[in-house]
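1st attempt posting a full record on here, be nice pls
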Amino acid sequence: MRSTFKGLFFLKRDKQKKDGSVPVYCRITIDGKEARFGMKKNIDPKLWNVKEGKATGKSAESSEVNALLEKTKAGIHKIYRDIQERENAVSAEKVKNIFLGIDSKQYMLLKAFDEHVEENLI
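the predicted structure (as C-alpha cells):
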C-alpha cells in the first residue's frame, strides 16, 4: 500500500527566546496525519527561509542548522522506508517515536524479570 509522506521544518515563532531566537520544529505527515517534535535547536528568524524550510546564508549558525536538518530528514526517510518494508503500516507517530528513540517495542528489564519469576514459579 502506498502512502503520502512529507517531512517539513518550521519555526515555532510563538516560543521566542529572550535573545530573539526561535526553536526549529519538524513535522512529519503521512496520509494526512501529523506528528511534530522540537529539534532542540534555536535560530535567528531572520536567517530562516520559510519557502525552502531551511536556514539561508553561509554563516556558521546557518550551516550548523542546515546540516542538522539534512541529517534529520535522511534519518526520518530511512525509518519510513524500513517500517514500510517490514510492516506496511506506517504512521507519522510511529516514525517520530522511532526517530526519537521512544520505540513502542521497548523491553524493560523489570518486565523481563517479572516474566522470568512467573515462569519459574509455575
